[in-house]
Amino acid sequence: TTLNADSKERTYIMLKPDAVNRRLIGEILSRFEKRGYNVVGLKVLTPSRELAEAHYAEHKERPFFKGLVDFLTSGPVVAIVIEGDNAVATARTMIGVTKPQASAPGTIRGDLSIDVGRNIIHGSDSVESARREIGLWFRPVEIVDFKPVDHAWV
Ligand code: RTP
Ligand code: MG
């Protein structure tokens, strides 16, 4: 079968505090659902400093690190696990590039943001990062084992 329901790649998506404040949760989540991805983990939380620093640990020597952590801990985020065929790479394509002004129209950042420090969404950059980040933000029981039903009756 070419149906992608069997492909279980997972990625970690996070709607940053600017997206939540701007009430863009539904707009952004709907793009992944309409594309064909399943939401298998979902929660709203205000991250601790420790969690935000661990999430962005790869950037800890960068000049923007403190500002990035200040921003991420400034209010609620939506932590999401998306599942489906080639989820990691396709989500990054849907998100656009780091700088919103360089992100093509049609991408999430390209349609909804203009500032690199307020680029509304995070997506894991590799399968390995996705595994690490999902483990950081979710306990195993918070992620469902989801088998979509036959599309003939939904
Ligand atoms: P993310 O991790 O949030 O999905 O973003 P990304 O992969 O596209 O970009 P990354 O290089 O991982 O950077 C993480 C976040 O740091 C902020 N940043 N600011 N001022 C700057 O030059 C700068 N560079 C990066 C961005 O908010 C970026 O999303
Ligand atoms: Mg990144």
Please specify the SSE layout and strand pairing.
Layout: E1 10-15, H1 17-21, H2 25-35, E2 38-45, H3 49-55, H4 65-72, E3 77-83, H5 87-95, H6 108-112, E4 121-123, H7 127-137
Antiparallel strand pairs: 1-3, 1-4, 2-3
The structure holds ribavirin triphosphate and magnesium ion.
Give a quick precis of the structure.
By secondary structure, this protein is an alpha+beta fold. Helices cover 36% and strands 16% of the residues.
What does this 3D model show about the protein?
Residues 8-145 form the Nucleoside diphosphate kinase-like domain. The chain is α+β, with helices and mostly antiparallel strands. It has helices spanning 17-21, 25-35, 49-55, 65-72, 87-95, 108-112, 127-137, and strands at 10-15, 38-45, 77-83, 121-123. It has a four-stranded antiparallel beta sheet. The two termini are 19 Å apart. The mean pLDDT is 94.
What are the key terms here?
single chain; four-stranded antiparallel beta sheet; 4 strands; binds magnesium ion
Structural class: alpha+beta
Which sequence of SSEs, written as H and E, runs from N to C? Answer: EHHEHHEHHEH
Strand content: 15-25%
**How are the strands ordered across the major sheet?**
2-3-1-4
Main β-sheet, in a few words? 4 strands, antiparallel
- Please tell me how large the radius of gyration is: 15 Å
Note the overall shape: globular
Which distinct ligands sit in these coordinates? ribavirin triphosphate, magnesium ion
Strands, total number: 4
Average pLDDT number: 94
Helix run count: 7
